[in-house]
Amino acid sequence: MALCLLAALSASAQTRYDLLLKGGHVIDARNGISAVRDVAIAGGRIAAVAENIPASAARRTVDVSSLYVTPGLVDMHVHVFAATMDREYTGEFGVRPDGFTFRSGVTTVVDAGSSGWRNFEDFKRLVIDRMQTRIFAMLNIVGHGMGGRKDVEQNVADMDPEKSAEMARRYKDIVVGIKIAHYAGPDWGPVEKAVRAGTLANIPVMVDFAAFRPERPFQELVLKKLRPGDIYTHTYLSVVPMLDSEGRLLPYLLAARRRGVIFDVGHGGGSFSFRQAIPAVKQGFMADSISTDLHVDSMNAGMKDMLNLMSKFLNMGVPLDDVVARATWNPAREIHREQYGHLSVGAVADVAVLRLIEGNFGFVDSERRRMGGTRKLICELTLKGGRPVWDLNGLTSADWNR
Ligand SMILES: [Zn+2]
Q: Distance, CA 68 to ligand 1 centroid (Å)?
């Protein structure tokens, strides 16, 4: 009896991990790791990251040698309030996230202002609570968010900092920021209201500046109006003042960054120009986070998905470790969710296993211009809480005839 118990105990000690990813190149910016490591998972969490963890310690071992193992990707800017039937960002333009995210290694998304304080609870009930993808939200400063009649985002009367902050505080586990987008008027009022709401709720503001007007210069937005930790999305939009007539990076951008303003990619359907991005990145102005601005039109155009965006930057010469940091740990920090975006022992086991393939590829910007490239990331395996939610080649499955 005692021997049996001892044998059972030692067997369970030997297989103390549920899953072992063996031999992959781990990229974990938070922990400063870019090296071949084994990653063990138990109870849905990262249990060990080490140079050699024996396969006998795990119930299932997956050989991921020649692949990259990264934290599950965090996409800072998406539109996933796909709920009503109208052609708007709370309807047909939105994307149901689970059908899109996992296949490109994404486990966490931030909906950027599709809902406001009036319809956030609908968004939560109809989408956030029903999906496996982890969904955070930035509340639009407009009460109706991006839903309703076409000029809803111009409705200054529906921009209420107090009510927005109150809703943000009520759902502080989900609401990670305030969004102001597409405002076309000549005044700073809506930006100031968004910053007021962000200050009241103690969360960052994300700005889509949309109309660039001389009455409210972009330089003033990033040098004066935004607080440190606030985010400008659509960094490489064609009309951002970025380069002088000689193609040199404008120094105010670096000054804004020194102030602590964050620059996010937010590629979208119309907000990413190679003619801006390539010279800016070459001169060191790489965005802090890589995000898709996912909606139906952007995913079917040059944006495609997170891995396609990350591959664009790789082919512009940004090192893979930097690219991965900007799609994992950086965005997690920007939304103050530092429990995600890394592979520390004890962290939720959200993991992407990526393959870097070589060939002749083409990448397209939002002006339909093409950049050739030779390297491309594809997603082999995505784990959410330790569970496979995408497995391109059945790495975690047993052979059919065994
Ligand atoms: Zn957007």
A: 29
